[in-house]
Structure to design on (790 residues):
C-alpha cells in the first residue's frame, strides 16, 4: 500500500485535504480512504489511465520549439482531486460576483464620467499612465454596462486557510477548457468516487458561455452569429479556443476571416460570400485586435474592428480596454472600488499590497525586499516577478533598481504561505502548492463556475503554478456534504 | 463554411492525392524499366518535365538519372512537389482544420507524414522501392477510407472531394502521358511487342488492371486502355469519372453554375474523342488541353470560394 497518510507532512502550511498527518478534513475522508487502499501498481494504472485519456482527448498546450515550430504537450495532471465544501464555496461565489460587478462599474466609469477619479478614490495619473487604459474606448457604453464578460480570478489560501484574491484576469483569461476536461478524465478514472460524493457538475460552462455571448448581440435576432477569434494554431491556448468553439457550436475564426466594410459592420468570409458577425469572443490581446487603431504591424487582428465596435454593430468579449482594471497596481485599490460603487464591504479579501508609487510604501518594500513578492504591473504568466525569499542578492539588487526607475510599474506583497494539497509524486502523496482560478461570466446576470481550475506547482516547494513554467492541474470538486 | 477552412480542406486533399499519384507515377516507370529489354535505355528526365519541374530540378542536380530523379521526387525537401513536401503540406493544412475533420483522419495524416520522413530514403534502392511507395499509396487510401466513413456530409466534404478529384484528374492524365511522351522515343516495329506490356504497367500503377480485364474483357491494347482511363466513368481513377464527381460536388456548393459548365465542357470533349485516333502526339496534345482546362477550373473555384 503506497499512500500512507501517517507519513504526510503538512508542516507550516494549510493543506486542502489533510488537517494533520493521518487526519483528513471531513470532506476528504472518503477519497483518502480510497487512495490508501490502492497498491503501487494500481496507482500507476490510474495515472496511466488518466494520461491515456488526456492523450486520446488531445488535451494539449503548446510549448514553442525551434525545430518543429511548435509541439503539443499534454499538461501534467494529478489524479488526486482538490476538494472544497459547497457551504464555503457559496460564500466565495458571492465574493467573486461582488468583485466582478464592481470592476465592471469601475471600467464603465473610467471610460465615461470618471467619477472615481474626480472623487480622488483612485489617483488620476495612475490610470492615465497605465498602458492598459485605452483612450480609444472613451465614451463607449457596451451592452449591459459589462466590459469584462469573462473573468478569471486567481484565489489562494494562506496558512490559516483564509482565501484571498491574488489577481483578476479581465483580458483573455484561459484555462477553462482544462477545468472541463479534467472532470471528464476524473469520471473515467474514479467513477466510484462520483457515487460516494455529491460533486457539483461543471459541464454547463460552454452553454452558459454561449448564452451570455448571444445576449450581447447588437441585432435582436433568434440566432446571432457568435464567433471565437483566435490568433491561430501557434498560440499556446489554441487548443482551448478550438475546444470552446466546438463545444458552443460557434465558428472558430482567425483575423483574416473577418472584414469590416465601410458600413462599419463585421463580416466573415464564407464560401457563400460575406456573412454578418454579431458577437466576437476574441482571444487576441487588445494591442493586436485592430491594426487601424493599435499596433499597425498586427497580422492577427481585423482592420476596422474598433470602428465597428464603437458604432455598436458588433460586441467584443471582453471589451477592449477592460484590462485597465486587472493591472496589478489597480488591484491594490479594488477594496476601495467595491466600497465606492456598491457601498458594501468586500467579501473576499485582497492580499495586502504595497504600491511602490507611494514613497513610504516603496521604502518599506525596498527595506524588506527579501520577504516580498515583487510584481510588475503588466506581465502575466509569472514572468518578470521577484520572489524575495527564493532570490539571490543580485536579483534583489536588480529589482531595487527597477523599482526606483519605474515605481508605478511595481507592487509588492508579503510572501504568502500558499496552501498545499496531496499530489501524487511517483506513488507517494506529497504536499504541493496550488491556487484556484474560477471563471465568472457577466451578461444580463452573473454566473460563477462550480470550482474552477486548480493549478498545482509540481516542483517541491515551488509556488509558480503557470503551465508555461512547469505547473500542472487537478480536478476541483465542490462537494455538498449536507445533502444525504 | 469559412472560406479559409474550405481552402485548407481542399488543399489538404489535393496534396494527399498528389503524393499518392506521384508514388504511382514512379511505380509505372520502375515497372517499365524492368520489363524492357536491356538495350533500350529508359529515360527518367520526362518525369521531371511531366510534372513541370525542369528548372527546379536542374538547379540542384546535373544529370537526370534514376537516382537523382527519384530522390528529387520523393525525399528532396528542396522540391516543392516532392512526396515528402506534399505530405508535409497536407499535414499543415490538416492541422489547421483539425477540429473539422475526424480525429482519426488527422492522426493518419500525421502518421503518414512521419512514416515517409522516417523510411523515405529506402526508395532509392530498387529492392525497397516498391514497398516504400506502396506504403504511401495505401496510407492515402486509408485516409480516404476514414474520411469517407466518418466525415459529416456537408460543404467541407464537398470541398474535400472536389480537391481530390481535380488533383486525380490532373495526375492520372500525367501518368498516361508518361506513355505518350519521350520515354521511348524511337520504338522500332519489332519492339512494339513491348508496347502492350507497358500499357499493362500503366494500368497496374493505377490499380486498374483487374478492373480493366473484368470490364473490357479484351487483351491489353492501346486504344482500349486509353478508352478505359479517359472515358470510362465506372472506373474511379479515370478522367471521366473524376470530372463527373467534380460535377456532383459542385451541385452541393453555392454559386457553382459557371464552374459546373466548365467541367461539363471538359467532360464532353473527352467523351467525343476517338481513342483509336490518338497517336502519341495527339494524345500528348489532348492531355495538355485537359490540364489547361483543370487550371481554369481551379482558378474558377479559387475566385468563387476562397
Amino acid at each position: 500500500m503506497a499512500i500512507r497518510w501517517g507519513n504526510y507532512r503538512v508542516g507550516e502550511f494549510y493543506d486542502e485535504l489533510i488537517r494533520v498527518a493521518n487526519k483528513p478534513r471531513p470532506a476528504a475522508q472518503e477519497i483518502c480512504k480510497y487512495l490508501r487502499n490502492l497498491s503501487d501498481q494500481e496507482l500507476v494504472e490510474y495515472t496511466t489511465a488518466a494520461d491515456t485519456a488526456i492523450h486520446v482527448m488531445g488535451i494539449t498546450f503548446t510549448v514553442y520549439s525551434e525545430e518543429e515550430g511548435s509541439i503539443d504537450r499534454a499538461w501534467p495532471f494529478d489524479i488526486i482531486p482538490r476538494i472544497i465544501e459547497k457551504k464555503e464555496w457559496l460564500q466565495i461565489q458571492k465574493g467573486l460576483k461582488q468583485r466582478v460587478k464592481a470592476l465592471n462599474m469601475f471600467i464603465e466609469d473610467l471610460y465615461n464620467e470618471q467619477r472615481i477619479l474626480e472623487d480622488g478614490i483612485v489617483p488620476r495619473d495612475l490610470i492615465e499612465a497605465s498602458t492598459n487604459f485605452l483612450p480609444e474606448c472613451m465614451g463607449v457604453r457596451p451592452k449591459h454596462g459589462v466590459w469584462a464578460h469573462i473573468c478569471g480570478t486567481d484565489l489562494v489560501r494562506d496558512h490559516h486557510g483564509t482565501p484571498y484574491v491574488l489577481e483578476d484576469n479581465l483580458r483573455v483569461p484561459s484555462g477553462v477548457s482544462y477545468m472541463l476536461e479534467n472532470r471528464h478524465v476524473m469520471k473515467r478514472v474514479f467513477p466510484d468516487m462520483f457515487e460516494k460524493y455529491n460533486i457539483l457538475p461543471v459541464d454547463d460552462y460552454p452553454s452558459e458561455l454561449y448564452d451570455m455571448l448571444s445576449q450581447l448581440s447588437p441585432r435582436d435576432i433568434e440566432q446571432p452569429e457568435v464567433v471565437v477569434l483566435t490568433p491561430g494554431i501557434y498560440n499556446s491556448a489554441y487548443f482551448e479556443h478550438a475546444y470552446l468553439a466546438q463545444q458552443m457550436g460557434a465558428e472558430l475564426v482567425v483575423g483574416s476571416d473577418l472584414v469590416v466594410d465601410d458600413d462599419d459592420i463585421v463580416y466573415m468570409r464564407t464560401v457563400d460570400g460575406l456573412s454578418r458577425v454579431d458577437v466576437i469572443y476574441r482571444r487576441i490581446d487588445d494591442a493586436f485586435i485592430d491594426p487601424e487603431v493599435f499596433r499597425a504591424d498586427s497580422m492577427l487582428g481585423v482592420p476596422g474592428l474598433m470602428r465597428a465596435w464603437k458604432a455598436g454593430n458588433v460586441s467584443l468579449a471582453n471589451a477592449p480596454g477592460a484590462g485597465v482594471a486587472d493591472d496589478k497596481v489597480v488591484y491594490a485599490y479594488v477594496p476601495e472600488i467595491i466600497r465606492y460603487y456598491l457601498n458594501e464591504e468586500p467579501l473576499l479579501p485582497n492580499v495586502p499590497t504595497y504600491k511602490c508609487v507611494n514613497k513610504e510604501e516603496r521604502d518599506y518594500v525596498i527595506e524588506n525586499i527579501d520577504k516580498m513578492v515583487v510584481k510588475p504591473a503588466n506581465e502575466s504568466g509569472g514572468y518578470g516577478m521577484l520572489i524575495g525569499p527564493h532570490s539571490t542578492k543580485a536579483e534583489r539588487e536588480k529589482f531595487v533598481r527597477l523599482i526606483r526607475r519605474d515605481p508605478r510599474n511595481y507592487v509588492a506583497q508579503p510572501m504568502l504561505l500558499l496552501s498545499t494539497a496531496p499530489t501524487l509524486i511517483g506513488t507517494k502523496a506529497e504536499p504541493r502548492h496550488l491556487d484556484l482560478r474560477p471563471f465568472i461570466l457577466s451578461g444580463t446576470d452573473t454566473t460563477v463556475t462550480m470550482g474552477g481550475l486548480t493549478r498545482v506547482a509540481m516542483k517541491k516547494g515551488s509556488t509558480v503554478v503557470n503551465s508555461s513554467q512547469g505547473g500542472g492541474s487537478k480536478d476541483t470538486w465542490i462537494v455538498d456534504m449536507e445533502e444525504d | 463554411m469559412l472560406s479559409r477552412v474550405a481552402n485548407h480542406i481542399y488543399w489538404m486533399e489535393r496534396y494527399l492525392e498528389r503524393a499518392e499519384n506521384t508514388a504511382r507515377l514512379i511505380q509505372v516507370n520502375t515497372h517499365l524499366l524492368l520489363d524492357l529489354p536491356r538495350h533500350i535505355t529508359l529515360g527518367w528526365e520526362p518525369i521531371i518535365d511531366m510534372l513541370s519541374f525542369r528548372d527546379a530540378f536542374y538547379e540542384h542536380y546535373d544529370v537526370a538519372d534514376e537516382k537523382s530523379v527519384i530522390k528529387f521526387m520523393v525525399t528532396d525537401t528542396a522540391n516543392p512537389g516532392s512526396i515528402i513536401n506534399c505530405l508535409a503540406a497536407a499535414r499543415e493544412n490538416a492541422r489547421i482544420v483539425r477540429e473539422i475533420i475526424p480525429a482519426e483522419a488527422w492522426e493518419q495524416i500525421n502518421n503518414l507524414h512521419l512514416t515517409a520522413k522516417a523510411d523515405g530514403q529506402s526508395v532509392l534502392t530498387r529492392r525497397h522501392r516498391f514497398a516504400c511507395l506502396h506504403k504511401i499509396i495505401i496510407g492515402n487510401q486509408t485516409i480516404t477510407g476514414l474520411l469517407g466513413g466518418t466525415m459529416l456530409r456537408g460543404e467541407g466534404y464537398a470541398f474535400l472531394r472536389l480537391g481530390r478529384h481535380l488533383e486525380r484528374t490532373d495526375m492520372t492524365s500525367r501518368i498516361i502521358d508518361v506513355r505518350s511522351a519521350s520515354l521511348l522515343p524511337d520504338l522500332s516495329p519489332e519492339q512494339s511487342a513491348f508496347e502492350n506490356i507497358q500499357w499493362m504497367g500503366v494500368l497496374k500503377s493505377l490499380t486498374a488492371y483487374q478492373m480493366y480485364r473484368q470490364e473490357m474483357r479484351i487483351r491489353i491494347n492501346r486504344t482500349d486502355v486509353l478508352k478505359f482511363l479517359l472515358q470510362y466513368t465506372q472506373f474511379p481513377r479515370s478522367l471521366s469519372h473524376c470530372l463527373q464527381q467534380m460535377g456532383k460536388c459542385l451541385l452541393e456548393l453555392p454559386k457553382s453554375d459557371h464552374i459546373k459548365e466548365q467541367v461539363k465542357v471538359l467532360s464532353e470533349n473527352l467523351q467525343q474523342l476517338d481513342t483509336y485516333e490518338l497517336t502519341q502526339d495527339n494524345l500528348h496534345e489532348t492531355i495538355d488541353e485537359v490540364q489547361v482546362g483543370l487550371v481554369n477550373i481551379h482558378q474558377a473555384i479559387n475566385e468563387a470560394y476562397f
